[in-house]
Design goal:
The chain has 332 residues and is α/β, with parallel strands linked by helices. The protein has eleven helices and twelve strands. The protein has an eight-stranded mixed β-sheet with strand order 6-7-8-3-9-10-12-11, with helices on both faces. The protein has a four-stranded antiparallel β-sheet with strand order 2-1-4-5. A hairpin with a 4-residue loop joins strand 1 and strand 2. Helix 3 crosses helix 4 and helix 3 runs parallel beside helix 5.
Length: 332
């Protein structure tokens, strides 16, 4: 498969200002040098607990916020989007779209569904006025809604239906890549399954690629081809989905997998739950060496002193851990 997106050493530091003169006294290292690639037609899950930098990374890729450093090249022409100005990047915005976490706050309550879904078409002038309604109906039907929903307002829909509206809006300009920022975390479990199945169907139908952001590994397992695990601004492990769940290589990944509930109650009662002690360190003053070492049960002196590089240990499996060759970790 061809590479659609390649991210190299992406960083985003937010300045901390104090005093009357608002001098910079430090930085919050929200994203601290991450690198990964995405193949065309692939779904990459980006997971980690709250505050690890998942959403910040996604917003940098869309240039909703300006990254501090790093590069991300997109498409067959390998254009470095990080170097483009706001005006220069506009043609690429139609090719990269986003599904937001909260389906209620991401929709304008004063606009009808028809206006919301049709807005990208009108702004980008991709559809004539006589074809606009037919295109909106086509988009709504592709996500399980109907033409009768066009004159209704977002408050008249359930959470799952509102997220379908957001998905239809993201599809309007025929994107190549969709960044889904925790699109099911605000929904009931049964509705989550419906939305996940819809995303899988749309990927096959429209040949889409996804970056799927979540904090729940059980959600990511069913939709992702590969998974990247983030901790405190860094990627600690990247692997194909099946290998990661069966044989994690980083202690943090092992702990996340142990927290995923099993469908069999007997197996759930007998499994070993790994508890991560302590709180997530302050991203403005992260620990030296491996960021995870203060909470890692396997940490040694080298973990406290040297920062582990994200290295490939087997084909398609990368891990940032000094002890990855020695530990025998357990998956699902």
């Amino acid at each position: 498969m061809a590479t659609l997106l390649e991210v190299k050493d992406l960083r985003k530091y937010f300045p901390i200002r104090r005093g009357i003169l608002r001098r910079i006294i430090g930085h919050v290292k929200a994203v601290d040098g991450i690198s990964f690639d995405l193949q065309r037609g692939e779904t990459l899950g980006l997971v980690g607990e709250s505050g690890c930098g998942k959403t910040t990374a996604s917003r940098c890729l869309l240039k909703l916020i300006t990254p501090t450093s790093g590069s991300f090249t997109f498409g067959e022409e390998q254009v470095d989007l990080s170097e483009l100005s706001n005006k220069e990047i506009r043609p690429y915005r139609s090719r990269i779209q986003m599904i937001f976490q909260d389906p209620q706050s991401s929709l304008n309550p004063r606009k009808t569904v028809g206006d919301i879904v049709g807005e990208p078409l009108r702004v980008n002038r991709t559809t004539s006025k006589c074809e606009l309604k037919d295109r909106i109906v086509e988009l709504l039907e592709s996500v399980g809604l109907t033409s009768q929903d066009m004159p209704r307002y977002p408050h008249a829909f359930s959470g799952g239906q509102r997220q379908r509206i957001g998905i239809a809006r993201a599809l309007a300009l025929n994107p190549e890549l969709i960044v889904a920022d925790e699109p099911v975390s605000a929904l009931d479990v049964s509705v989550q399954a419906q939305i996940l199945n819809l995303l899988v169907e749309l990927r096959e139908k429209f040949q889409l690629s996804y970056i799927f952001i979540a904090h729940d590994l059980s959600v990511v397992e069913h939709i992702s081809d590969r998974v990247a695990v983030m901790y405190l601004g860094r990627i600690v492990e990247i692997s194909d989905s099946e290998t990661l769940y069966k044989s994690p290589k980083h202690p943090y990944t092992e702990a996340l997998i142990s927290a995923v509930p099993l469908p069999d109650p007997k197996s759930q009662r007998t499994r070993d739950l790994i508890r991560i002690e302590g709180d997530v360190p302050d991203p403005s003053n992260p620990p030296a060496g491996c960021h995870f070492h203060p909470r890692c049960q396997y940490a040694t002196d080298i973990c406290k002193q040297e920062t582990p590089e994200l290295r490939e240990i087997t084909t398609g499996v990368k891990v940032a851990c000094h002890l990855s060759d020695e530990l025998e970790l357990h998956g699902v």
